[in-house]
Amino acid sequence: MTVSVATRVIPGQGPACESNFTVSFYIPAEHSANPPAPSDSNVFFSTIPAHRAYVKSFGGFASQDDWIQAGAELGRALDASHPYDSSYHYTAGYDSPFTIFNRHNEVWFVAN
């Protein structure tokens, strides 16, 4: 894989609320005019708009704790001069599940 599988995460409010996850797969330009129709009503087409983002990269097979740690590190690295939308963020993985070494993962905070 050379493009990411991006997941938009809207954190749940409070200790018992679950976060909302929307997983996005890239459709190459040559297939975007006439993509196959989804067979499940929970699958839909959308576009992630062009944006600027602050990014924290890390390697390995990412666990939930790894994503949380990378997001926390990114948040600590940013100050008031780097505003971002804190209501959601993206996680991105770039590797096939069969890739064992040199994996690439990212957390994105969308800049305001």
UniProtKB/TrEMBL annotation:
<dbReference type="InterPro" id="IPR006917">
    <property type="entry name" value="SOUL_heme-bd"/>
</dbReference>
<dbReference type="InterPro" id="IPR011256">
    <property type="entry name" value="Reg_factor_effector_dom_sf"/>
</dbReference>
<protein>
    <recommendedName>
        <fullName>Heme-binding protein 2-like</fullName>
    </recommendedName>
</protein>
<comment type="similarity">
    <text>Belongs to the HEBP family.</text>
</comment>
<dbReference type="Pfam" id="PF04832">
    <property type="entry name" value="SOUL"/>
</dbReference>
<dbReference type="GO" id="GO:0020037">
    <property type="term" value="F:heme binding"/>
</dbReference>
